[in-house]
Specification:
Pseudouridine synthase; 314 residues; alpha+beta; ten-stranded mixed beta sheet; two-stranded antiparallel ribbon
Length: 314
């Protein structure tokens, strides 16, 4: 692994309190998409809530299109959900004249939970957030120490990193992004490189956030209420001191910044810290526990868990 793209090397706000096994079973990682609004009950689209296990969101979208007899472009969804998990999410199906019922959408790859008419197609980011129910096994930390860390997270929050799944297996999306930047072909969705553009933008944000944490660990006050860059063209109203630090760090990534500025994206800002809501836990038998919490859209459960334990995979 190229050290430049090692997610595990990004600094944590606190030392972990022990270790735990994550994703030992498929249902150990459960995600429920929170729309934040209700179907209108009328309109040219159907909103369909499905529960999938070990399935890719795009693959499920294709199956739904085939079952409904519509084109893949008539399917909408708010975001990609983990494959190696049990995930509940919403899809929209454009079918202004044809009636679609639950029975028509039956498939072994997923369960249809709800279906109702709606006025609009779902777009990326239309949802409010996600609720997580995650089981950690073979934990090595003390219960009271864990409770203190959980209380701290619920009060102060965690670094709002983009999770490692954003960057592909072994950071493959970042290696591809680097090649596209070098060849001048990182141009966005119209050229089919939008996925890698997003990974590049996310990585630069992570680097900035990691630098803030490093400086905090060295005694500098952390800018809890500030934001970091989602790079693109244009200026922002961020704090001048924050912008100066970002410019110094990203000077080593000038080619990436240039590519993002000329990709059609405008610069946006993302909170450096995210505070989970509805945070709770339950001890299970032996050395296992389940932790529950909700996060706004675009935030990652793994960034919460990495502030608690060293996460091992089976």
């Amino acid at each position: 692994m190229d050290a430049r793209f090692d997610f595990c090397s990004l600094p944590k706000m606190n030392e972990t309190i022990g270790s735990a096994l994550m994703r030992a079973h498929l249902t150990d990682f459960q995600v429920r998409e929170i729309l934040g609004f209700k179907p209108t009950g009328t309109g040219e689209h159907y909103l369909v809530e499905i529960c999938k296990r070990n399935q890719n969101t795009r693959w499920v979208a294709k199956i739904l299109a085939d079952l409904a007899g519509i084109g893949i472009c008539d399917i909408g969804y708010c975001g990609l959900k983990d494959r190696l998990a049990e995930t509940t999410q919403w899809f929209s199906l454009c079918s202004p004249k044809r009636q679609i019922g639950k029975d028509q959408l039956r498939h072994q790859a997923f369960d249809v939970l709800k279906i109702d008419r709606h006025s609009k197609k779902l777009r990326r980011g239309d949802h409010k957030g996600n609720a997580f129910n995650i089981t950690l096994r073979e934990i090595t930390f003390d219960r009271k120490v864990f409770e203190r860390r959980l209380n701290e997270i619920g009060s102060v929050g965690v670094p709002n990193y983009f999770g490692e799944q954003r960057f592909g297996i072994n950071a493959g999306n970042l290696f591809t992004a680097a090649k596209l930047v070098k060849s001048g072909r990182l141009k966005g969705n119209r050229q089919g490189t939008g996925f890698y553009l997003s990974a590049a933008r996310s990585w630069l944000f992570n680097l900035i956030l990691g630098k803030h944490i490093e400086d905090h660990l060295d005694g500098e006050e952390f800018p809890f209420l500030q934001t970091g860059p989602l790079w693109g063209r244009g200026r922002t109203r961020a704090d001048p001191c924050i912008l100066l630090k970002e410019a110094r760090l990203l000077a080593n990534w000038s080619e990436w910044c240039y590519a993002l500025e000329h990709s059609g994206l405008t610069q946006e800002r993302r909170q450096l810290i995210v505070v989970p809501s509805a945070l709770s836990y339950e001890h299970l038998y032996k050395k296992n526990l389940t932790i529950k919490f909700e996060l706004p859209k675009g935030c990652y459960a793994t960034t919460v868990l990495r502030e608690i334990a060293q996460l091992n995979r089976p």
